[in-house]
Amino acid sequence: MKQTINRLRFVFILLASASSPSFSQNNLGIFSGSGDIGTNVKPGSTTFLPQTGQYIISGAGYNVWADHDEFQYVWRKMTGDFILFARAEFLGNWVNYHRKVGWMVRKSLDGNSAHVNAVEHGDGLTSLQFRRTAGAQTEEHKFKMTKANILQLERKGNQYIMRAAIYGEPFQTDTIGNIDLGDEVYVGLFVGSHNSDVLETGVFSNVSISVPAKGESSQMTQMTLGSNLEILEIASGRREIIYTVPYSIQAPNWTPDGKSLIFNNAKGLIFNFDLATRTPAQINTGSVTNNNNDHVLSFDGKMLGLSNSVRDLGGSVIYTVPVEGGIPKQITPKGPSYLHGWSPDGKSLVFCGERNGEFDVYKIPAGGGPELRLTDTKGLDDGPEYTPDGQYIYFNSVRSGLMQIWRMKADGSGQEQITHDDFNNWFAHISPDGKWFVYLTFLKEETPAGIHPPYKHVYIRLLPLDGKGTPKVLSYVYGGQGSINTPSWSPDGKKIAFISNSEMGSK
């Protein structure tokens, strides 16, 4: 019954979109062309829904297999490296085990072209398929998992990396090398029915194409890629890009009135982004203009805490300023001091500070005063944030080997580990109702435990406040440093804001 309702809802959206003055059958979103691959193929179609960002693709054809293919394809031309991402679902009842939805990279639009595709079949088979040269037989790497609806395909030179997941779970990965499709390729989404006489339909959501950083991002000190400011709906996983710039912006805070997001740019300036008009305005922070992505709002939304680099004082130093702007007040006497949390009663700030060669969690009065050290274990302790009831401070610590989420009572006592897995977990942010937290997860094979660089494959995950249960992946992101450093829940607890990254303007 629920599936029937969802299908009817989708048809309603489709019809409403088609009749909307802003809707155009020629609008292909991020793609530039569409059509049927192969000869004498039953005509398919591609429809883009601007209101939801979805692509509805119907395709027929005997198969995508053997020495030639028949299917419906929506594509754009690209050169260089890229990361393709989508959530892919079949629409309608099962017809054929081997109907296909997925991503495809092709050397040409000829039916026998060399290609690589990341695909889910009608029976749930998930695989990485490839034809090395024109007219050659298609080869396949089958995943152990089935029924993946999260499909990612990345190109690194002549290497292709497929990552697949059932939404909410971590990726499984497979890789093939020495696939030379040329530098300029066709990149796009496809649907094939495995039946020349039948059209099958796929629905693709959260579709994105990212162009990754060149070089090793863990060694980067400057963040230079473009940025997408995104809003994620917790219940559905739907992502919406609300603002895009060809330079680095970082760490959105959601104001308690729900009207704005506050972020910094790479030049150290702070901006208030109006969600109604979707425009940013710089906040006046006086002479404090070298701010990093560790800024925090007070619970009442009246004050903004900043972490501003002051070389003569040892690095990042904490200041506070009225949220509408003004003359900042210095809080910590020296750096490095990276602000992460404000107590619900407004009286205290908690931060990560380096003192005598060790990074620990410290507490300081919001108006300035003596620092109180809350952690003293060897290794990095970072990212402290209060729960809304003020009883606990959550933080991340490398003390157990990998970076994990911990918590302690507000006075520093009772320190206990909350996450226990094979990932590197950073920056727990507590929901407004105090029942959940989201956090940023790096893959240990990509990133050592003690750093959180930009431009990596990361997850934004969700857990109950006590850490019990299986973490749910809310979003699969190309980002890292600056994506979600700061508290970013909407006041109603239904959404979060974050930053994803890509080189902008690449073709």
* Strand segment tally: 39
Gap between N and C termini = 44 Å
CATH architecture name of the largest domain: 6 Propeller
Which structural category fits the helices and strands? mainly beta
What does this structure look like?
- The chain has 507 residues and is mainly beta.
- The protein has two domains: 2-210, Jelly Rolls, CATH 2.60.120.200; 221-502, Neuraminidase, CATH 2.120.10.30.
- It has one helix and 39 strands.
- It has a seven-stranded antiparallel sheet, with no helix packed on it. A seven-stranded antiparallel sheet has the order 2-3-16-7-12-13-14, covered by helices on one side. Strands 19-20-21-22 form a four-stranded antiparallel sheet, with no helix packed on it.
- Strand 27 (337-342) and strand 28 (348-355) form a beta hairpin.
- The protein is elongated.
- The relative contact order is 0.11.
